[in-house]
Design a protein that fits this description.
The protein contains 14 helices and nine strands. By secondary structure, the chain is α/β, with parallel strands linked by helices. The longest helix is centred in the C-terminal third of the chain and has 16 residues.
Length: 296
């Protein structure tokens, strides 16, 4: 039997959201589920901050799956500007249209101008796509990598989901998208943007929940291997590493071990696959030198 489409209004409690996310193999704790539930029901953006790899982006993807809505992703980076996030005109197609009109003998300048600025020549970038698509989930990923100017511009868009296009007029979302904004905290995001959102700091999962995540996401993983990898990840996060592993790296590490046929965390095999969990030479050397892969 086909499942009916779930709307935000159908989710009556954080506990229900935990249950729904669990169906898509996302194991949320009570704090995250409560923040996400309130964001859905109140129609507010959810601002998730935390270390890389703890599940911020994955939550947005899972919400899109749960709500049967397209995920529209705006990946932030230094130098990102409004035009790259909003829309652009397809100059090549506009030029072809002008040449075709010229060949057909069209000389009405006003008509040509109105035609080349028609909606069909507009390339929608992520923010315009999210405004025009209902329902949708808008993921503004790693906002901390964007410039201050873009952050101020984003705040304006998130306030009313209205986009003004001089040549076409104003486009307003009939139903605002579900918005998830993420930050790895490489810099502080301005309070004005945070005030517009509901905020949640996403921690690394506790030991038991990480074991559960490994077993759920990697069905071929043995209980022994999941327990040992989660224990090793816990030790690595407690060490003073440049970049401790997140859940994403723990999953990659476990998958690498499974690919090599491991059913438990053999220290030699763990060392050989450590590049799946750690991404800095200094971290790998420190872990091996201090025997952090040995489990009791």
């Amino acid at each position: 039997m086909l499942r009916r489409t779930i709307r935000a209004a159908d989710i009556e409690s954080p506990e229900k959201l935990i249950e729904l996310l669990d169906r898509y193999s996302y194991l949320a704790d009570e704090g995250l589920a409560t923040a996400a539930f309130l964001a859905l029901r109140m129609g507010r953006p959810l601002f998730l901050e935390g270390e890389a790899g703890v599940g911020k982006t994955e939550l947005a993807k899972t919400l899109a799956d749960l709500l049967k809505a397209p995920l529209i992703r705006l990946q932030c980076y230094e130098g990102l500007d409004a035009a790259q996030a909003l829309y652009d005109w397809d100059f090549a197609r506009q030029l072809l249209h002008l040449k075709a009109a010229e060949a057909a003998g069209v000389t009405d300048v006003a008509r040509l101008e109105s035609e080349i600025y028609d909606r069909r020549f507009l390339i929608a970038r992520p923010l315009l796509k999210a405004v025009e698509t209902q329902p949708s989930v808008l993921l503004v990923d790693e906002i901390d990598r964007a410039d201050d100017e873009f952050e101020a511009f984003l705040l304006e868009v998130l306030s009313d989901f209205t986009i003004s296009i001089p040549e076409l007029g104003t486009i307003k979302a009939a139903t605002p998208p579900v918005v998830v904004v993420t930050s790895n905290r490489t810099r502080e995001v301005h309070d004005a943007l945070k005030r517009r959102c509901l905020y949640h700091w996403l921690e690394h999962p506790g030991f038991d929940r990480e074991v559960a995540i490994l077993l759920r996401r990697l069905p071929s993983c043995t209980q022994t291997l999941a327990v040992q990898v989660a224990g090793a990840a816990e030790r690595l996060r407690a060490a003073e590493l440049i970049k401790p592993p997140g859940v994403a790296e723990t999953l990659d590490w476990t998958e690498a071990l499974l690919t090599l046929g491991a059913r438990e965390l053999d220290p030699g095999l763990a060392a050989a696959t450590l590049g799946a969990a750690l991404k800095y030479r200094e971290d790998v050397e420190a872990v091996l030198a201090n025997g952090l892969l040995r489990h009791g």
